[in-house]
Structures are given as C-alpha cells and as structure tokens.
C-alpha cells in the first residue's frame, strides 16, 4: 500500500530552512547527523523506503523483492530507467558497489555495523576481503543478498541512509570529497554549497517517482542560533526552523493562537533515560537501581521542559512496535525508594555523579534529577560536559549515572531491536561501547538474537518477544526511562502538506519530497 | 649698544598692576601681585628672580596660556593698546605666534616628537599667513638658515630626537621668529643647555633681534646671562617686583637687598683664586685611582642582533683622587663625565683598572662590593629623579643604613634626624614626600642620603647645575662645610666653569671621552693650554654688563661623534706634563 | 634660601588615613558601599534568604513550566527550575566574588611576578619569560580553558585556577613594559649606588610604582574574569550546576532574555555594579595611595 | 631593518611551534576519543581499531606530532575527522568572514573607544567625563551574548534597520561588529583617556598653543598621534581577546566564521580542525603583534627597530 500525495499540492517555489550546526558531509556512507540525515534522504535513495509520515516500509529503488524461506536470501528487482543526477542509469553493479563501499573499513562509515548480518561482512571488516561475498549481481536489474544469519531488521537496514546507492565513477572522481559533491538518484540534487553558510538543493527533474518533488529548491542556512531562527520565522524569512522551537520561545509561541496554529506536534522514536552503571557500587545492587527509578519525579521534569514530552516507563517509545501497553514500570514513590535504599544497606544515602551533556535543557533536567535523588538521601554531583567527554566517560565505564539527553537514542529505524543491541546488549559493554550501564544478561541477549532471527519483522510473536526482552531488562532496572520527547516544530504560513510530513519519524525534520508551498 | 630713548618711543607692551591668582581647593591665592612694567620695540627686558618667583606665570599670562586653575584677577596687559587679559580665545589665537611668540625652557620636550621639524615650522607659518605649503616651506627653510642651522633643507625632514639640544632650541627660536612677532618671550631659553651651546644661542638671539627689531622678554635666573643680553632688568621675588632699572644700574648699584643677595650668590670666574687653600698632597693610597679606564656602550643591531657600533664614552682615563680633595671633571654634555662617575660607582662595566682605597673593584666579591658601596656615594644632577617619589624622604635617607644593617632603628632615627638638621632641614619634614620640597631642599636630602653612611668619597654629578644661583650657593657652601668637618673627598662634575673654579682643588677637562687637560685649579684656570679648555672658559657668561660683547670663537660645525663601528677605536691622545703635574693632550 | 614649606603635615597612621581619605570621595564611598553590601549578602546569605538556592520549588513554576517574574512571593522571581533567584544571586555572589577576587588576584599576581622578573632581570631569564608570555598570548585562551577544565574535573577552585592561568598574560606584558622603563629611572640607579639588593629594589621601589597600573588592571579584570567564568559555564566547563554564580545564571538563561528578562538582566546588572564599584574604589585608591597627590584631595 | 624582521619572523615561527606543541599535547590528554565520534554507536570493536589505525591515533604522541608538523610545513593541515574535508578548505572558506568581522570589530572599538576616550580626556573631571567612564564599565562588563541578542532584537527585529543575522552585505556586518567592538571600546576609551591626559600635559602641546594653532589642529595633529602610540601595542594583544569573542558573536548572528567551526570541532573533538583553527588564530595573533611592532616605528620615529 502506497502513499497518496496531497491532491492540493502545487509544484514550484523554494523554501528556507535553518540549522545551528554546520552540515558535515552529504556522503550517505558517513552522514549521521541531525542536519544531514534528511538531506541525504532527499538526495539519495536506497532499495527500501518508508511511506511518508509513517514508519511503514515500502520499496524504493527496488521495484520488488523476494525473501527465501529461511529468511537469509533477499533478491531485489531494481526499477528500470532510474538515473543518477549525472545522467547515467543505475544498475545492480551500483548497489553492490555501494554496499561494499559502506562496509569497507577505509570508508570509516559509522553505519558499517548495521550490515554485519550480510555474509562476508567479517572478512571485509578485518580487511581480508574487499567485497561482500553475500552480495551478488545476478543481472543488471537483479541483486541477491545472502545473510549469514536471519535478520528481521534487514529490510529496515536497506532503508537506512547508509544503504543509499551511489555511482562508482562519481565517488572515484571526487575521492574523499564525495560528501561535498554528492551524486545520487534522489528527488533533489545539490546545486550550491557555501561551507558554513548555505546549502542549496534543487529539484531533480528526472526523478523516478512521478509528480514529486513539488519544490523547485530548498535553501538550508546554517550557523543560526535557534532563537534567532525563530525570530526570523516570525518575520517570514524562514519556513522551517530545523532545530525546532527553542525552549526559550516555546511559551511565547504557544500563547499566540496564530503561531500556535502553525506548530506541529508529533511523536518521535525517542526515549530519554538515565543509565545506572551496574558494574560499580552501589548500582551493582538491584535495590539501589530500583530506588533510583522510584525516586524520579518524571512529571516535574516534563513540566520543566514545558510539557514537551510524555513520561516513559520502559526503553521503547510508545510509537515503536513491540511497546508494552499497560506496563507499570516504577511509579514515583520517594518513600518506597528510601525503603529500598535501606534494604540495600544504604539507608543513609550515598554520593555519586551524574554526567550530562552541556546544552540546554539537559543541565536543567540533571538538576531536577539531582533534587529528586537528594530527597531520598542520594547526593549527586553533576558533571556537565561537552558531548564527546560524556560519551568518553560513558564508554570507559567511569560514569555512575548518565542522562542521555542530547546524545539520546533516536531510533535509526522503526524496529524494537534498535533499542537493544549496542545500548543494552552485551556487545556494547566493552571499553568504549555505547552500553553505558554496562548491563549484560546472557539470557536476555539470547532472546534478542532469537527475536531478530525471524524473517518477518512484524510477526506478532517477534514483537511479543521484544516486549518480553524489555520487560526483563526493566526488571533489572539498569536504566531509568524518564520521558519520550514529543517533537514540536513550526512552519511558515505558506507551507503546505500533511502535518505528518513535518514530524516525519524517519525523514527528520521534514520530508522535503512531499511538502509544497501555497503561494 | 644704544639704549633706546625712553621718552620718545611709546611702549609696545605695557603691563599694569598685573595680579595673577590660583584657585586651589576653593582658596584664591595670588602668585603674582601688582606687577607693572613696559616693553619698548627692539628692547631686551630681562626678568630675573629665584625659582618660583612668578616669572613663568607672568609670561604665560602674556600668551594667554595660563593653566586652567590660574587666572589674571586684576590689571592690564596692553599690547599696542589692546588688553590681552580681556581678549577672548578666538581673538587671542591669531595674535599668538604672530604678534607675540614664546620660547620655552625645555628644548628637549617642547617639540612634538612624532612630527618632522619642517611640518612643525610650516604649520606655524600657515596658521597665520595665507600661504601655500610650498611658500611656507621656503619661509621655514629661510627661518632655519637665519638661526644658523646647517643644511636647513635636510633638517626639515628630521625628527626632534635626531637633533641635539642646542639645535632644537634653535628650531624653537626659528619657529618663534618666522612670523617676525613684535614681542618674543624667552623663558629660560638656555638653562638646559651647555655653556658653549648657551653662548651660541644667546649670540644668535642678540643678532636676530638686532636684525628684526623684535622686543624680547628674557626670563632667567642666571645673572651672567642677564648682564650679557639685557637692556633693562626687573627683579622679582615671591610674585612681586623688587627692583627695576637698566642693566648697568642693577649690576653697578643694586638698591634692593634681594638684588644684592642675588648678585652676591653668582659664581664668578676668577673669584676662586682668592681662596688660598693648598692643594691636598699626594697620599700613598689615593681614595680612588683610575688607570686607563674605558667604558663603552654597544648600540645598533645587525642581522643576528649583535651590536654594530660602539660609543666610546670614556677612553683611557687616568686620574686619582686624594684624601680630602675635591677633584673636578668638566666638559660639554656627552663628553663622558657621568660615565666616569658611573664606572666609579660600579653602575657600568669598565675596562682598565679602577681602584678604590687601593683595591681593584673588578676583582671584588659580592659582599666586598657591597662594603665598597659604603665608601662611595653619589649625588645626582636631578634630585627629583634620584629620589623615589613614593618614599618618604626620612625613609629614603635612612634606607642606606637599613641596607647595610647599621644600628638599631632608634639609632638610625637619631642619625637621620641629626643629618636633616645638618643639611638645614627640620626633622618634621622627614615624613614628607619628595614632591613636597623645592629643588634645593631635595638636593639637600640627596646629600643627606649620601652622607648617612659616612663615605670616603662623594661623587657629585652636576649636583648643583639645576639649581637657582642662590640655592646653588647655599648647597655649595654646605658641601664645603661638610667636607671641612668630615674630611671626605669629592668628585665634582660640572660643565659650569665658574662653579668648578670655586670649589675644586684639581680638575680634569674631558672631551669626547678622553682627558685633554689635567692639573690644579690654578694651573688650568690660570694657564689653560688645550684649545678646548680655552673655549670652555670663553663661553662662560660674565655677570658684568660692562664686559659684554666679547668675541666668541665659534666652533666650526658639530662636535665629532663618539660613535664608532665595532672594531674601530678612536686614537688615544698622549698627555704630556708641562710642569708641576699640569698634563695637556698633544693635539 | 627658599623653603617652600607651605604643605601642612600629614601625621596620622597610613592605613587609617588612606581609609579616611577614601571616605572623603563620594564616588568611592558609593563603590565601597556596594562592595560591602555584596560581600555582606554573600556571607550572611543563609540568614537573609527565604529559600535555599538550589531548592526547586513547586510553586516556583507555572503549570506550563514558566518561571515566576519578580515581585510577590519571589523578590527577584524564579528561574527555569523554579528556584528563588534572589537566593541564587546571594549565593552566586560567593562564587563570583571568589572568581573576581581570587582568580583575578591570582592572575594579577602571576602576571606581575612574570612581568616584573622579566623586566628587572632582562638577560636570558627575561627573554625566556617574555617569549613564554608571547606564546601564551598567541594561544587561544578559551581553548586552553576548555582543555584544562576538561582534563581536571571542573570545580570552583579548578575553574578559578584555569581563569588565573589564562588571564595573567596581558598583565605580564604591561608590567614588563613598565618595569623596564622604571628600571631605567635614575632613582633606581641611585638605589644601586647605595648597595641595595635586587630584591629590595624590586619590592620596595619598583613594585609600589606599579600599584596604579595593577589597580587599573585588577579592577577591570573583575568583570572580565566573572564573565569568563560565565563563558566557561556556557561551554560546560565552568562551575558545575547547581552551584550558582552570576555568570552561569546569565548563561543558563541567556536565550530567555525575552521570555524571562529578569534572569539575564538582574545578574548582568549585578556584575556591572560590582565591577563598577571596584573600579570606583580602585580609581580613588590609586589617587589616595599616590603620595604625589597628597594635599590635593 | 632586514635583520630585525628576520629575527622577529623567526621568533614568531618559534612561538607558533610552541603553540602547536602545547595544543597537541592538550588534545592528546583530553579525556575524549575522536575515534568514537567517527565510528558511531553501532560500530564494532574491530571497526574502531581499524579507524584508529588508519588515522595513526594508535601511535605515540611524539610520532603523531612529528607527522603533524611534517604536514604543517608543507601547508597540509590534515583532514577533518567528521567533515571528511581538508581542514585548509574548511578554514579558507570561513576565514574571510571572520577577518571581516574582526576588522569591523576593531574598527568599531577603535572609533567608539578612541572618540569617547578623547572626549573624556578633554572634559576631564566634569560630569561628561564621569558619565563616559560609567559607560565604559557598562561596555566592559556586558556579556556579549546578551548584547548581541539585544541589539538583534531591537535593531533588526523591532526596528528592522538591519537584517536578522546572516552574512553578505555591509548591513549584515554592522550589528555583529558593534557587538564585538563594544567590550573593547570600553577598554580603549579608558586607555585613550589616560594616554590623552598625559599627552595634553606635555610641553609640545603648550608649544603648539603658543604657535596660535586652532584647538582642532592641536588635537588632531599633535595630541592624537602621540596619544595613540601606547594604544597600538594593545591592538596586537587584542586580536587574541577577539578570538574568544568571535565564537559567541558568530553564533548569535549566524556569521559563517571560524569561531563556529572551532566550537563545533571542540564539542566533537575533531582534532585536526581544532589544531588548524588554533594555528591560524595563533598565526594572526603573532602577526598582529608583529605588525604592531613594525608599525610603531613609522608612527613614532624615536623607536628604532632592534
Ligand atoms: N598650575 C599651578 N597651580 C598652582 N600653582 C602654580 C601653578 N603653576 C605655578 N604655580 C606656582 O606659581 C609660582 C610661580 O611659578 P613660576 O613657574 O612662574 O615660577 P618661575 O619664577 O618661573 O620659577 P622657575 O625659575 O623655577 O621657572 C610657584 O610658586 C608655583 O608653585
Ligand atoms: N646606556 C647608553 N647607551 C649608549 N650610549 C650611551 C649610554 N649612556 C651614555 N651614552 C653615551 O655616552 C656618551 C657619554 O655620556 P655621559 O652621560 O657620560 O656624558 P656626560 O658628560 O655626563 O654628559 P651630560 O653633561 O649631558 O650629562 C654620550 O655620547 C652618550 O650619548
Ligand atoms: Mg619658570
Ligand atoms: Mg652627565
Ligand atoms: Ni667590553
């Protein structure tokens, strides 16, 4: 089932979007930022795609695909007549080249790990081979991918930016600078890029999907403080603030009915949580972790961020398949928390540290957490540091507690497995790994592996299993899930298109291919 | 010179009942009271008087340049019948420089250091006359030629620091005279200059005045200068006029007691001969002995930062100072007098041999050197600069005792108090700061500080040059008195031949870092042999209007430079004894 | 003989007289009053405030999570966590005073020591010290601060030390230049002929002459260091939350300058006032300590 | 002269060498691993090690530094870890904007600061002088972020006189330059005031008055050139202080300069970029001081280049 575009949509016009941080690269194998994620989505295509505004998979460059019985062989039939921005037709060779490229260690792709289930990945990773043995070109229109183990998420992986198809000759010509002169098959192509200032995309007239995109071009202005961006939006100079509505302006915007009408709210595959390092005392005691879970007043924290979230009680966000409805989690209960502490022999409390990234509102949230914990006798020192330093402390296992905000897990793709692997599984506990709780339970890990070996990602038993995984995790309380952030964004009056396109769960912040302007 | 007929010529400038007051924290205090005098065209009027008597204030009032808190409170300043005191700034400005010009005491700081001479001159011309830049330049060069500056066209492009003091003062005069003002005020124009240069500048002023018929007000406290240049003289004391008359009258028959006092204090060349004290005999161990002592300063920098040139400030200097003797060192500015003093005091490294009390200074250990400091003390030229402005003078005098750990605090106190009384200051003044004293008083403080360690030798480097004649006389008397009493020796450095003659027993004449003549006072002053010594003596102004207008031997061009490229040293002139220890350089 | 002995005698003890003469100046008095109020407020904060500085009050936020404006229950309003701003300002004064006085003082001391030593000793010691100063000057201060603060875990004293390490350079330069010119002065030569040791000349004669310069740099440095601490907080390497400092109150809330102006302008005004107060007192102190100004005030 | 220049340039090079070494060491001991930033959260241990090896980050400090220096002397600043672009390209694309802003800021602080300083000196001790002194404190103590936002709000949003942030025309430059210059103008006005007061006391000013020059001429031809001398050395020092301010001002006004580049690089330990920006800004500071030293003798003929 495909997407029906807005019948009122009119082609033409250009829009302006602002970001605070610069766009690092548009190389789909490398780009992994808030800013470039959606740009890459519009410049490139992968074999798989999502229905706009939803988390539903649909075929992209692949016209159709077949999965073998055991779920380890995927055969994709490519669309015909798809051309790259340089005019050449895309073939199965390009798909193979692209997958080889992203997994090649030379490329230093942060997404290489997603392809670990493809046969031959280990050889490529270790440098023994320079081509994935599991990817075969059957004929120019057909490509066959063999997995070394069943992987239910594989189709989602093929929908990731990292799996975008790139033309070999353009990559080789640009060399290391491909990220600055990207060539893809997407709805837009790069027209102009002045580093540090502005990036202009223009419509790909030969785009293979009919009727889209509507816009003639998109201008991204970077280096704009979110507050300033909003001021410009209010003056009509900007169409969408890429970094959203800054907290400082939220109240003002919501209090003005005219502006509030243009605010779009949407769910997000996001959970904000506190990690409790289970390998160091006193968090090695379950009772202490439970106490912390019970001590946090999530409603108050949400109030502090102007109510832009909903309280969380489990790792998965509500819009994620596998979310356990009706799960109780830990209720706010300071007295109970004290009792738990006493049970652990820490009735007098203890002192610990909370690491937090230093951008607003994270230090504020940390202070709210600090106050909650003080109420049960736990003294928390806040370490508010740059992102890189927090990640380092977390990876090294030096941080007893980390507030995940700012570096939080926004799912790469809408599948429950995405919240487990590196951040809760045993694989991430090594030095430098992203499992900052250092939580490792072999039996849960086994269950997760089993769940991922299904062939159909949406199989109810599979989702059931994931639900079970996260319930068991919560039983050991290595995290304090605090809230699921809601996304609030704003658009200029002339912007048209479904609200869902502005809070697209995949193409963040806007699905450029389908929005349009009304004048 | 013909004194203009008073009855016929109307006064150009007439000052009537001038009172100038300062407003100080709400209190109005007069600085000059009820001063009246006239100035006629072409006349030179000298205003004499001790420091602080109001001479400069009067001239600033004439220029309309009084400081903000000082103003003319009554009286008139009539220039051609126009009252300058009542003139608004806009009407005063065109007169300044054009009708009435002024030369200041400090040639070193009176020119803008970052502007070329030419610009400063043409600017003055163009401020008053509607001429083009080129015309102004021609006029400026002409003005420089008038004041006998060599290569005037090149000087136009030079900066003040590239000129000597005498040349700068000549530039100032050229600037003042370029517009042919009716009145020229010269406020101590030569005080900061060497005798020889002073002589030139005074001659120049006189010549120019004769040519242009400018009326000159010459402010000075040097009665020698007054006698040589003035037609009429007024004498001021504490802001009041005490006497007025022609130069001849004032010098021949001074009426006011103060004038007589002033005249008596003037050191006169030849007066020293009357003092019949014998020259102290040679002793086995002299207080200090220099044998072929040399000092050089390295300047310039080449590619690697090494110096390229060397100033041979003192070269092969040999002399000794006997116990109880005052040894004089004379010569023009820059000839190396201070350098010798500094080498003796251990402030600059030297070559050759310097012995103090028989011990060579260069081989001393640190504590010995410190002990040596007790034996040699120095009194500098500028007492204000030589005292720490942030230290109470009592503490300053006590400090040497503290440094050398002598006595208990009470004993030290007693010694300092005693010294304060000895040099004629009161003990209450000990808790004041240097700026609260007059120049003469400050110099006494410096002397007290030098004396507190009971040294064997005191070096007086131009110690009285900056002082008023009257103050100078008292300080000199004090030095003599202390010497008689304590029996120490002095190394007395000065460029004023008259003063030197009055105080020293023996002396050496220096020129370009070398001694050109040395002997007893009588030998040098009675029988000067070296041409340079003779020139120095000739340049001294004589405080007697009857003996003015001697012809002065002008030196040709600039003195040679003591600066040599490294590796080249000037030749050493041999000294020959022409009898009785009178040494003269072979020329 | 001329004895211009018209200056009346100043007998009283120096300290008392300095204070007395300081008091005679209106502006200085005003400055002194501000300093006393701030210091007093900082010291007696626990007895003055109604709420603890770090207490996130339930009634301190609206239901939408907006802070309370000044007036009413909260004298200076509340901050974004519902804490009493007045209380945070008083406690923050402690931090800011430590930064502005201790860190700034340490920077001044280091700068003075380096500059004076280099200027007085010259030679290779001086050359090395000054080249090092040049190097530090060329080093982006903020980067140094960030690195140092990231290497040592930030605490108030570490931050103070970092600020001192970053801020001494300009002082060293200026002191160096002045010392070299002072060392040329004749009264220093006079001291040498008296046999004074290097240390004595430095501390008894050169240092007092640097006092005016040091006062100027010291007082100007107060606002600079307080703001630097704020910038460091902003970069996440300053005094760690929830410890308040005037600087970090501003930086935490700077984007709210429209929504909650009191959160920016009250601490901003406080820094300004404190800097102004120190400057006024410093200016007056400079005149009062200068003996050549005696009898003119 | 040539020798002097040569020695100064050599000195400057040594200073830069020192700066590069200190920065390198600091970044080396910094508790943050750039490889983690590159590898991303789903990377395996193997990938991490691969990247570390490829970047040579597994080598000892001195080897790494030596390599960096070797590149540096060939003008190679390395490649950004995160942007995967030549650092020199990144800097070159942003430097002009920063230089423009800096020039604007310096111009602004000199014009405001010197003018106010001269006026205060001329009205010394009067209410105007005291008012200006307070103003200068306000300027010195005002946090740049707040000043910037305030100016932006009032002059761009409310009054609409200037564009709201951005880069391009002269109108874009005004507000950021003023923001950057305000703090410095406070310093300069104080220094200019005392320098001017000192100069106005000098004998040559009296001489100029005695020549009958107008007040304006005395001020501009005689007093100002002398009073400005001590200020020149300050401008050299200033460039260093500006580098700090530029980060804040650029981010408020969306000015595409190296300040923003540096800030992002620091946040994410992009070592080559941090090094590059540090070297470039240190280069400018050294150059600024060098220029100040070279220019002074032209304005003040008494100073010899030595
Ligand atoms: N701006 C001023 N404020 C107060 N008193 C002043 C001021 N200028 C000068 N005086 C005082 O006026 C008196 C006369 O000073 P003036 O400079 O005219 O003396 P002078 O005769 O020129 O002395 P000298 O020979 O030292 O130049 C002195 O007592 C001096 O202290
Ligand atoms: N530190 C120095 N560096 C370079 N040259 C110097 C230095 N000190 C003095 N000179 C030079 O050495 C020479 C002798 O100077 P000195 O001060 O001994 O002269 P002086 O006879 O005392 O003159 P004055 O009468 O002006 O005091 C002069 O040419 C002077 O310029
Ligand atoms: Mg005078
Ligand atoms: Mg001398
Ligand atoms: Ni030698």
From TrEMBL, chain B:
<comment type="similarity">
    <text>Belongs to the ABC transporter superfamily.</text>
</comment>
<dbReference type="InterPro" id="IPR003593">
    <property type="entry name" value="AAA+_ATPase"/>
</dbReference>
<keyword id="KW-1003">Cell membrane</keyword>
<keyword id="KW-0067">ATP-binding</keyword>
<dbReference type="GO" id="GO:0005886">
    <property type="term" value="C:plasma membrane"/>
</dbReference>
<protein>
    <submittedName>
        <fullName>Peptide/nickel transport system ATP-binding protein</fullName>
    </submittedName>
</protein>
<dbReference type="Pfam" id="PF08352">
    <property type="entry name" value="oligo_HPY"/>
</dbReference>
<feature type="domain" description="ABC transporter">
    <location>
        <begin position="13"/>
        <end position="263"/>
    </location>
</feature>
<keyword id="KW-0547">Nucleotide-binding</keyword>
<keyword id="KW-0813">Transport</keyword>
<dbReference type="InterPro" id="IPR050388">
    <property type="entry name" value="ABC_Ni/Peptide_Import"/>
</dbReference>
<feature type="domain" description="ABC transporter">
    <location>
        <begin position="285"/>
        <end position="537"/>
    </location>
</feature>
<dbReference type="GO" id="GO:0055085">
    <property type="term" value="P:transmembrane transport"/>
</dbReference>
<dbReference type="InterPro" id="IPR017871">
    <property type="entry name" value="ABC_transporter-like_CS"/>
</dbReference>
<dbReference type="Pfam" id="PF00005">
    <property type="entry name" value="ABC_tran"/>
</dbReference>
Automatic annotation (TrEMBL), chain C:
<comment type="similarity">
    <text>Belongs to the binding-protein-dependent transport system permease family.</text>
</comment>
<dbReference type="Pfam" id="PF12911">
    <property type="entry name" value="OppC_N"/>
</dbReference>
<dbReference type="GO" id="GO:0005886">
    <property type="term" value="C:plasma membrane"/>
</dbReference>
<dbReference type="GO" id="GO:0015833">
    <property type="term" value="P:peptide transport"/>
</dbReference>
<dbReference type="GO" id="GO:0015031">
    <property type="term" value="P:protein transport"/>
</dbReference>
<dbReference type="GO" id="GO:0055085">
    <property type="term" value="P:transmembrane transport"/>
</dbReference>
<feature type="transmembrane region" description="Helical">
    <location>
        <begin position="97"/>
        <end position="120"/>
    </location>
</feature>
<keyword id="KW-0653">Protein transport</keyword>
<dbReference type="Pfam" id="PF00528">
    <property type="entry name" value="BPD_transp_1"/>
</dbReference>
<feature type="domain" description="ABC transmembrane type-1">
    <location>
        <begin position="93"/>
        <end position="282"/>
    </location>
</feature>
<feature type="transmembrane region" description="Helical">
    <location>
        <begin position="259"/>
        <end position="281"/>
    </location>
</feature>
<keyword id="KW-1133">Transmembrane helix</keyword>
<feature type="transmembrane region" description="Helical">
    <location>
        <begin position="132"/>
        <end position="151"/>
    </location>
</feature>
<dbReference type="InterPro" id="IPR025966">
    <property type="entry name" value="OppC_N"/>
</dbReference>
<keyword id="KW-1003">Cell membrane</keyword>
TrEMBL record, chain D:
<keyword id="KW-1003">Cell membrane</keyword>
<keyword id="KW-0813">Transport</keyword>
<feature type="transmembrane region" description="Helical">
    <location>
        <begin position="134"/>
        <end position="155"/>
    </location>
</feature>
<comment type="similarity">
    <text>Belongs to the binding-protein-dependent transport system permease family.</text>
</comment>
<feature type="transmembrane region" description="Helical">
    <location>
        <begin position="167"/>
        <end position="188"/>
    </location>
</feature>
<keyword id="KW-1133">Transmembrane helix</keyword>
<feature type="transmembrane region" description="Helical">
    <location>
        <begin position="12"/>
        <end position="30"/>
    </location>
</feature>
<feature type="transmembrane region" description="Helical">
    <location>
        <begin position="273"/>
        <end position="299"/>
    </location>
</feature>
<feature type="domain" description="ABC transmembrane type-1">
    <location>
        <begin position="95"/>
        <end position="296"/>
    </location>
</feature>
<protein>
    <submittedName>
        <fullName>Peptide/nickel transport system permease protein</fullName>
    </submittedName>
</protein>
<dbReference type="InterPro" id="IPR045621">
    <property type="entry name" value="BPD_transp_1_N"/>
</dbReference>
<dbReference type="Pfam" id="PF00528">
    <property type="entry name" value="BPD_transp_1"/>
</dbReference>
<dbReference type="InterPro" id="IPR035906">
    <property type="entry name" value="MetI-like_sf"/>
</dbReference>
<feature type="transmembrane region" description="Helical">
    <location>
        <begin position="227"/>
        <end position="253"/>
    </location>
</feature>
<feature type="transmembrane region" description="Helical">
    <location>
        <begin position="99"/>
        <end position="122"/>
    </location>
</feature>
